[in-house]
Amino acid sequence: MTKPLRIALTKGRLEKDTVALFEKLGYDCTAVREKGRRLILPIPDGNMEVVLAKAADVITYVEHGVCDIGVVGKDTIIEMEGKFFELCDLGFGRCKFALAAKKDTDFYSGFGVKTIATKYPNVARKFFEDKNMDIDIVKIEGSVELAPLLELADGIVDIVETGVTLRENGLEVVEDVVPISARLIVNTVSLKLRQKEIEELVSKIEEALKNND
Amino acid sequence: MRKYDLITPEGTKDFLFEECLVRHETEAKLYDIFKSKGYYELTTPALEFYDVFQTESGHYPQERLYKLTDSKGRLLVMRPESTMPIARVIATRLRDASLPIRLFYNQSVYRFESALKGRSNEIVQAGIELIGSASHMADLEMVSTAIEVLESCTETSFSLEIGDAGIFKELMGELNATEDERENIRYLIETKNYPALNDMLDRMGDTPVIAALKRLPAMFGGEGVFEKASELYSNERIDIMLDDLKKMYNEISNLIGNGKLTVDLGMVNNADYYTGIIIKGYLEGYGEEVLSGGRYNKLLADYGYDIPAIGFGVNIDAITKVAVKENPREVKSADVIIFAEDGFEMKALDIAKKLRTEENITVEIALCDDIESTREYARKKKIGKIIFVDNENLEV
Lengths: 213, 396
Description:
The complex is a heterodimer of chains A (213) and B (396).
Chain A (H helix, E strand, L loop, with lengths): L4 E6 L2 H12 L5 H4 L6 E4 L4 E6 L1 H10 L4 E5 H7 L4 E5 L5 E8 L11 E5 L2 H10 L4 E5 L6 H4 L5 E6 L3 H5 L2 E10 L1 E5 L1 H6 L1 H18 L1
Parallel strand pairs in A: 1-3, 1-4, 7-8, 7-9
Antiparallel strand pairs in A: 2-3, 4-11, 5-11, 6-9, 6-10
Chain B lengths: L17 H19 L3 E2 L5 E3 L17 E3 L5 E4 L4 H10 L8 E10 L11 E10 L4 H18 L4 E7 H9 L5 H12 L3 H9 L5 H8 L4 E2 L2 H7 L5 H21 L4 E4 L12 E7 L7 E5 L13 E7 H11 L9 E5 L4 H15 L3 E3 L5 H11 L3 E5 L7
Parallel strand pairs in B: 1-5, 7-9, 13-14, 13-15
Antiparallel strand pairs in B: 2-4, 3-4, 5-6, 6-12, 7-10, 8-9, 10-11, 11-12
Helix pairs in contact in B: 1-3, 1-10, 3-9, 6-7
């Protein structure tokens, strides 16, 4: 028996969606469902092993090749960057990055350098770099929506799902930055050394996703 | 105030004992392979002018370079790679040398890697360059040498991958796109980002070239790739490239047996200056390639000497890491320790020298105050034999 394929899943909603997808493919994910506090869990009939990690760590583990495959949101991929293959869009975990500001203000007006609050400084920097706009970035760890309300920032760059939080705090989307969904990423060496197993898994997943549509 | 006097800069490290031992062994193996094939060693300075790395066929992104200035205020960099400096040497000091020129190097390269990812900014790289021949034989020499290098480095599994940078360049040549779009397409193919690549190319129309580009990143694997590739896109130059690559694949797979050789036509990595065959080597247990190279027929022209060349580099640190893990080595203590009584120091040195040369063993001179502490020291260091030197040349 060869070493099991090691798959890093982003803990939380993406983990649940991925497990549901794997079960649809016919894999026995009981161990993952009843994980308790364990972080490495077997999928015995698929010769796979699931590792549960925070989004950014999924990328780190896959990049270093200690996990062969990862499931992680495009938001984290854009923020972290890195060297791996991004083989498929899993379709779930859909949302978007957007620039938001206080309702009824003109974000782009005036000549001052704008201040942007965000949890994703790289995403924000790149977005404004493409517009040839200098900005000040303030990194916020918690509810980013607070920053414009407290007048620390002119706008925010953040993940927007339904827009409810924005609306309830008197903010609105100024511009979409980029759409987001869960991605299947693969270590560059693993794809080459274990091509057959990985391609089989990927084509099964793609098949299942097609049937979803 | 000395704040950083006890640590090394980010991305650098000290290598101790076992790591150095294994690294030396690896380097020695590669030296033997390279020398036995008629390659001669050169070293280039760690400091070069910034301009050396900004050529027509390939330029190093400035944010990845360590920069400083010389006494005249000119911009210098710590060499981020060895091929471009070697091209400079060939085009200048070796301009009149008869071709082909075979060179090997073993030196550190410096580049900023993403922070906090456990990567090194200083890596030792060894490699070879074969300059002045565009022949198939030169390609074969390079690929078979790469295999010997990988074989010598590991007891477990390795794999070698070949591709051709020309195929992608040829396809892009027939595509109507801006500079930005081109780089974007290259990046998406390199990262095998099928969804984004499809989205992007869908917006650009539906031509045979675009259809081929969409399928390019999936063109990897064993011999079956060539069959798929023949339906990809056909023009005279691409057909020739594919034929050559297939020929190479068959020749080399006979050499190393099944499964160790793969093809990837979607290898379009940062190696801007590659023009033909590309090679990459992987070791089981290391998450990135350990060997990488290819043909660069236009690079030397950027330094004013228009001749073809091919080469590859090996990440010595990566191989050392895998080798240490695969086969941990104890760093041996000395075989013998010699303690000299007062007045017999020169005699002790003489005996030590004789033992070292005649019996080829490691002999350490005791620096302890007396016999008792020498015994204690030998016990701690696990040195098996103590020689006390006095009138009698007493042994214990």
